[in-house]
Specification:
- The protein has three domains: 8-239, Thrombin, subunit H (Beta Barrel), CATH 2.40.10; 247-340, Pdz3 Domain (Roll), CATH 2.30.42; 363-457, PDZ domain (Pdz3 Domain).
- It has twelve helices and 25 strands.
- It has a six-stranded antiparallel barrel with strand order 1-2-3-6-5-4. A six-stranded antiparallel β-barrel has the order 7-8-9-12-11-10. Strands 20, 21, 22, 23, 24 and 25 form a six-stranded antiparallel beta sheet that branches.
- The protein has helices spanning 8-17, 36-42, 88-91, 228-239, 258-263, 282-285, 305-313, 348-351, 355-359, 375-381, 400-403, 423-435, and strands at residues 46-57, 65-79, 83-86, 94-100, 106-114, 121-125, 147-152, 160-171, 181-184, 196-198, 204-211, 223-227, 247-248, 251-255, 272-277, 293-297, 320-327, 330-337, 339-340, 368-371, 390-395, 411-415, 418-419, 440-447, 450-457.
- The longest helix has 13 residues, at 423-435.
- It is of the alpha+beta class.
- β2 (65-79) and β3 form a beta hairpin.
């Protein structure tokens, strides 16, 4: 995995962002302009991500091939040098990552670091100028009912903004052992992942990461974002492996219910009952075992199981902390030595597509099935007798063609300034562009919407 040190400017930004944070509920627009002023400040820092992934295909004959598919996501700039935060799942398995800014400029992005458990990743783009960066607010100050905006690239449609409120806090979506996600009714759809959830001061309070939906559907008013405080804690660790790793004691548990309290002879509700301890881990070495009920850790009673894990994560390895627990109708105390979290960072080889996978699809597959125009095709698609070119007979989902709105029945008349009349003509131009390492080609396509030039990405795998 490529590694980098934490830029000094990012350290400064994170250090000063939290104390000056303003609650979203305190910033109600009074200009009659809605949220336009906030969006205008935030939009230049939000990016659309276009990600090429390779999907292996094994036909009935048994010979494995692959197809390059395009997926969309979002991100935002956190440092003027070009550092961008997004979700790990957006770029998982990527061959190529392209970043598009609000002013339509584009840049190739490289991966700096990705979380193994936390769904966050950090990218880097190189530009000839400094980029506007967003600041983080203190997500601990959020309250249910605060107004928020979600900004991103839903369904690859381009930069979009939705608004809503904070619907819930400390939600568990079973992404990590310490989930405390923000729930919002601001519309979050596929493609919004990695984009910022901002307050009305234009500060990031979360990273949009998931939505709850009916099967096969879109947003129904339940979306989730990773809190900004979690992002502020994780990102420096992804950028700088020399930082002290998060703490870990090797224990999993569940919240104690009134009935569980009675079953174990505890005279009051609350606490965390141990489900498992990692053999040889800190908790195991301190004598903790399944069935123990943790009452306090480092002097404080945990609100819930995930809060317990979060409190340990924030401690430096080597720290010795007291844990009081209930066992066999008696309260006991153990001293646990915090260890480094074993898998915070995901190796680059496990995040980006391997060279072997990429090699399965060395040339671009734009996702179009091409055919010559026959009399039957003219009748089926209502093509004029004077229409010449190459028929698009099939469009595959999540490919360049589907992303560009191409539909079966459209006709390619010209590629890169050269008229085409057969599928081989089109493939020949594409292969030459790929061999010449050209990243884009222009296609002139006739459709029911008229005659339009459409650009297609044909670039090779990134270095």
């Amino acid at each position: 995995m490529r590694r980098t040190t934490l830029p000094a400017l990012l350290v400064a930004m994170i250090a000063v962002a939290l104390p000056g944070a303003v609650r979203a509920g305190d910033q109600i627009p009074s200009c009659g302009c809605g949220y336009a002023d906030v969006v205008a400040r935030v939009l230049p820092s939000v990016v659309n991500l276009s990600v090429i992934k390779v999907q292996a295909v094994t036909p009935s004959a048994g010979e494995t091939s692959a197809r390059r598919l395009r997926f969309f996501g979002s991100g935002f700039v956190i440092d003027p040098s070009g550092i961008i935060v997004t979700n790990r799942h957006v770029i998982q398995g990527a061959v190529e990552i392209t970043v598009s800014f609000a002013d339509h400029t584009q840049a190739h992005a490289t991966l700096l670091g990705a979380g193994a458990i936390v769904d966050l990743a950090v990218l880097k783009v190189t530009m000839d100028h400094k980029l506007p960066a967003l600041k983080f607010a203190d997500s601990a100050k959020l309250q249910i009912g605060d107004m928020v905006l979600a900004i991103g690239n839903p369904y690859g449609l381009g930069m979009s903004v939705s608004h809503g409120i904070v619907s819930g806090l400390n939600r568990n979506i079973n992404e990590t052992p310490f989930d405390d996600d923000i729930q919002t009714d601001a519309a979050i759809n596929p493609g919004n992942s990695g984009g910022p959830l901002v307050n009305l001061a234009g500060e990031v309070v979360g990273v949009d990461t998931a939505l709850y939906t009916e099967k096969g559907g879109g947003a129904i008013g339940i979306g989730y974002a990773i809190p900004s405080n979690d992002v502020v804690f994780v990102v420096p660790h992804l950028l700088d492996p020399k930082l002290p790793p998060p703490g870990w004691i090797g224990v999993t548990g569940q919240d104690v219910t009134p009935n569980l309290a009675r079953a174990f002879g505890l005279q009051h509700d609350g606490g965390i009952i141990v489900r498992a301890v990692v053999a040889g881990g800190p908790a195991s070495q301190a004598g903790l075992r399944p069935g123990d009920i943790i009452l306090t850790a480092n002097g404080a009673p945990p609100i819930d199981t995930r809060a317990l894990i979060r409190s340990i994560v924030e401690l430096d390895p080597g720290r010795r902390i007291p844990i009081t627990y209930w066992r066999k109708d008696a309260q006991q105390t153990a001293t646990v030595t915090v260890a480094p979290w074993p898998d915070l960072r995901s190796p680059r080889a496990e995040t980006m597509a391997s060279a072997a996978i990429a090699a399965l699809a060395p040339a671009p597959d734009l996702g179009m099935g091409l055919a010559t125009i026959t009399p039957e095709a003219r009748q089926r698609y209502g093509l004029a007798s004077s229409q010449n070119g190459v028929l698009i007979a099939l469009v595959t989902n999540n490919t360049e063609a589907s992303a560009r709105g191409v539909q079966p029945g459209d006709v390619i008349t010209n590629v890169d300034g050269t008229p085409v009349s057969t599928p081989d003509d089109v493939q020949s131009v594409i292969q030459k562009a790929f061999a010449d390492q050209r990243r884009y080609l222009g296609f002139l396509i006739a459709s029911k919407r008229g005659l339009n030039w459409v650009s297609f990405y044909t670039g090779k795998q990134s270095d």
